[in-house]
Amino acid sequence: MGVAGLRSKRPTETQEKSLNQERTRNFFAQEGFVRSPRKESHHRLVNGHENEGRTLERDVVVGDSLGEFLSGRSRCRGLRRTLGGARHRYRRALVIAFTEKLAPPPPEVLAICVEVVLVQRTGSHSLPSTGRPEVVEEFDSLAFRAALEQSVRKWRPGVTQLEFTQMAQYAGECAPAKTVLVEHDVTFDLYEQMLRFQNTWELRRQRALWTKFERAAWRAVDRVVTMSAKDRALVGARAVTLANGVDLDRYRPAAGDPEPRRLLFIGSFAHLPNLMAVEFFLDRVWPRLRDARLHIIAGTRHEYYLDHYRDRVSVNLARPGVVVEGFVSDVRGAYERAAVVIAPLVASAGTNIKILEAMAMGRAIVSTPAGVNGLDLEPGTDFELAQTAEEMAAAIEKLLDDPGQRRRLETAARQRVEREFGWDGIARRQARLYRELGLRA
Known about the structure:
The chain has 441 residues and is of the alpha/beta class. The protein has two domains: 35-245 and 424-437, 3-Layer(aba) Sandwich (Rossmann fold); 262-420, Glycogen Phosphorylase B (Rossmann fold). The protein is 39% helix and 15% strand. It has 16 helices and 14 strands. The strands form two sheets. It has an eight-stranded mixed beta sheet. A six-stranded parallel beta sheet has the order 11-10-9-12-13-14, sandwiched between helices. Helix 11 links the parallel strand 10 (293-297) and strand 11. It is globular. The termini are far apart.
């Protein structure tokens, strides 16, 4: 047999996809992760108006929750709307996401998507230890994998964008597309910070699980997007920082005055640092305030997460003047009614998009250093900084009692986001990343 007879044939696209999936599965297996059986959920396709695209002309966004995308608050939706505009000329994306209830997305979502694929979550489940964080297990779905594989075959995307760390487990199903993992925060770094306040066995266990999974996830994708330079330094050479932004047209200052002495905190209770922030504020700041009212928007299934984390935080919400809501699709009304927005976080990574929303709405903000992490804002000009409970109570009372100072802070905050945090500039940087990965405009 001649030399030519020893040459192997170039693998077909199907074979290459299978090889890439197998490499990713083997990679995570080598890192010590074991997939557990997962009850099937149902999925449903909601089609847009375009035909199937050619390779490299589309990207796929893989998200952990359609609710955040639908809310109009999401970073992903803001970038998609901008990248799909005339200035950037990217074709509309395909979105694949989990949802609590199957229902058609509203027209404004389909307008920026070529297709939306919904996979209904079946709820949490009891599992033996698998070496992966609980959140990763909760989002492990055979139906989601099947929907993603089907969509990749159909649309042949050039880039797949995985939103949030737990979605990195689906990198293998994205082949042969390039993969971008969007790290809204570095989770093991959050646990490092929380351990400074509560050095418990459970927090140490979660930190170890997330460190192992997260570092493996970074090595399994082509690029990692972080929200801040601090997080980029933790990830290393594969990372690029694309900061958070805000929709300056959607979030605008209200014409009228806010309700007197009304405070607002927005933060999903699914995120433990938000519960720790509420615990800190209610236990140590709230008793120092006079006749204030507090509105908390706690996200989907907030009662479940209050119970789920009861061994780590103890939050008493049954207090006079405190009102709690779950998921709110449009939070602009809540911002308009609030005299002061608070961010009493004791641990934080990434950047807090809710701070940018409040600034765009022209609201005065009082925050701890963790609440404005990674945003490089100017204390006393863009917001009021509080290092302690006493300082936070004093800053809030000052703004409630001095409308002139509050309005100066509101005006400066809006001007700052207009200069630096609009989606257009951020979208240009994301488009540049896509071009580097081979996606054509």
